[in-house]
Amino acid sequence: MRMRTMRAGAAGLALAVLALASGGVPAAAEPGAVTAAGADLVSVALDGDSMSLRLRDAAQVSRDAAGHDPAEVVLGPDGGLAGRVPAGKAFAFLGPPGHAVWSLSAGDTRFPALDTTEVRPGVVTDDTVALTLRSVEGPGTFTAYTLSGLGTATPLLGSGPGLTRTVRLPVATRTGAVVWAFDAAGDYRLTLTGSATLRSGQEVSAEATYRVRVPTISPVEEAPLPAPAKQAPRSEEQSAARALAAPAAAPKPAAAAPAAGKAAATTATGARQVIVDGHVDMGPQLSGDSWTIRIKDDRTSPPVWRETADVVLQVKDNAKITVPAGADFLGKQGDAVWLLPQSQQAGIVWPGWNTQHESVVSGVKGNVTWTLKGVNGPGRFALFLTGSFGKADVLFDSAKAFPQQLTVPLNTHAHGNWAFSKPGLYRLAVQMNGTTSAGRAVTDTKTLTIAVGDSTNPNSGFGSGSGSGADGGGNGDGGADQGGGGPLPRTGAGWVLTAGAVGIILVAVGVLLVVLGRRRRAGLADAASGGGSPAALVP
Fold this sequence. Notes:
Blueprint: H1 2-21, E1 32-34, E2 40-47, E3 50-56, H2 58-62, E4 73-75, E5 81-84, E6 100-103, E7 113-118, E8 128-137, E9 142-149, E10 152-158, E11 166-170, E12 174-175, E13 178-182, E14 186-197, E15 203-214, E16 266-268, E17 273-275, E18 278-287, E19 290-297, E20 304-307, E21 311-315, E22 320-322, E23 336-340, E24 349-354, H3 358-363, E25 364-376, E26 381-386, E27 392-397, E28 404-408, E29 413-415, E30 417-420, E31 424-436, E32 441-452, H4 494-528
Parallel strand pairs: 1-4, 2-7, 4-15, 16-20, 17-21, 18-24, 21-32
Antiparallel strand pairs: 2-3, 5-6, 6-13, 7-12, 8-11, 8-14, 9-10, 9-13, 14-15, 18-19, 19-20, 22-23, 23-30, 24-29, 25-28, 25-31, 26-27, 26-30, 31-32
């Protein structure tokens, strides 16, 4: 047996020598391409005193999988967006105005993120992880930044002049709306290092190399983002869904149990929550033919899915900004507006939406349609995106006619800017529709409640009207929802239609009463002249 092993080893060695002599060493396999849409570009994990940096695509994020070794995959060249540096100071760190830049993000709702959710609070000093750009190999400049509001951006790190090479990321946080930008076509290798100090004083770190392929940069002049949504027709049946341009969808995760070592999300009912900080998402869940919109509360691990009637989102005055120039959909320049930005900020609730629940990904075919059916509140509400280069794309606007629609692909996790023009209590009637794999249409309408401003008592948002919209129903048949109060009043242009219909009905009733009155008087006159019996006119 030992002799056979030795002979086999000798034969293998001879073959290897011959291969080297003839130059016949097989080439390394080309790394597979991964889309950045909805991905955690850098996912930092800490297991004891061992740190790792991984890259998680959207499918891996949805099922909380470990992810890829960054060196084994390539980001780009598909799914990105070319643009030019806008004028002004907000994006000056990218270069002079008009300078051509390519963004790894496609400019839609599925911006990638930086993830430290696998580093628990209290484990490292200052509850932060340092992410350092060690080196950049490539033909141009690399810059990483976040979109922090309308027309504004915050640089994180980069290789350009004046940019820092290190950013400190808070632990247990997903930093969203992240853009990786490059100003020349070609292949890049980015070496990143994560590091932290344990409470014991021990230093921990990990290093990874990312590969990015940038195509020829050809900016789309003046229109880098999807076209603004058209005003929806008055009839809901005739309204056309507005589809967001999205990169190729990531593979669907199997409807399997969460990865080993990960606790599954739970569902809670009856526990009222005022959420003023942290990450939450609105999204559907499917159980058989029962389709229900819930709020995913990511403030705990594992996350908790809550009934909409049990949640009020509170927007405090620390979220108040002034309307910049060119944002007419928010009001006049200089007006106050309360803004929940599409990138997470400490002390401000960070709401998003997702279609990532495993029951939806595995049990639904096609897209999910999100409809805003009405808004009740003291001011104007708008939900919009800030694109990679600062342009606003308005998704919903309460000043427009209802219903308004947005098409959301499966396995999507997205964030936008939620803006409110006045303090007070807002109720948004939100509906989500889908089609099961068996071909059955499912729908649910719920009320999302937001308390805006320090002067607004968030607890007043609980109770009547906090659970469902006018059309309720999670059973696929549009039946009444059992979670809350009656119909949701609508603001904006939609109330005109209702008032007009009521006016027409009142006019018709008035005309009918006049006609009946005339006939009754005529009958009485005939009876008095002997032409008939008054008793015959009595009902």
